[in-house]
């Protein structure tokens, strides 16, 4: 029994600490959070937390508000149209309404379709350009091969005049040498007289 009495005291201490933590958290002002007015609503924004306070303006479905405080069934919000004010609790949700999300998704999808169409057109242009460049490259390679062959033929064919000129010079030189030698041979030969 002594063990269960110790557990009860421990349970009371934990319960007291939990209550104290809840009181501390409840006493802290709520951090600003974004929320949207639920579907198909128009809410009065009042100067205080109650129906006895004056109406400052209205907010409608899809309007984004900043939640500033929560008190006694009322939520203090900051709006772009009416400034700061109070609305009844329970009409805000943490995410954008489904209708607005659908509109945003459809708009985003249309944008993606446009981008996809543009990218598809661009891919077709690039493929066409690539085909043209490939064809031009093949033509250029063929022209280079043809010019290389012609160049080799011209180099080989261009040497025959050199060879003919060399052979002609050699032949003329030999003929002149023979003529000169035969002329020298007649003059310089001593005649033998007997």
Features:
194 residues, alpha+beta, SH3 type barrels, two-stranded antiparallel sheet, 60% helix, disordered N terminus
How is this structure best described in words?
Helix content is 60%, strand content 20%. By secondary structure, it is of the alpha+beta class. It has 2 domains: 30-96, SH3 Domains (SH3 type barrels); 97-169. The protein has a 5-stranded antiparallel β-sheet, with no helix packed on it. It has a two-stranded antiparallel ribbon with strand order 2-3. The termini are far apart.
Q: Which structural category do the helix and sheet elements fall into?
A: alpha+beta
Order of strands in the sheet with the most strands?
A: 6-5-4-1-7
- Spatial shape: rod-shaped
Q: How many extended strands?
A: 7
Q: Counting H and I runs of at least 4 residues, what is the number of helices? A: 2
Order of secondary-structure elements: HEEEEEEEH
Q: Tell me the count of domains.
A: 2
Radius of gyration: 53 Å
Please summarize the sheet with the most strands. 5 strands, antiparallel
Question: Mean pLDDT, rounded to whole units?
Answer: 81
Strand content: 15-25%
Assembly classification: single chain
End-to-end distance: 175 Å
Tell me the helix content. Answer: 55-70%
Give the low-pLDDT segments: 1-5
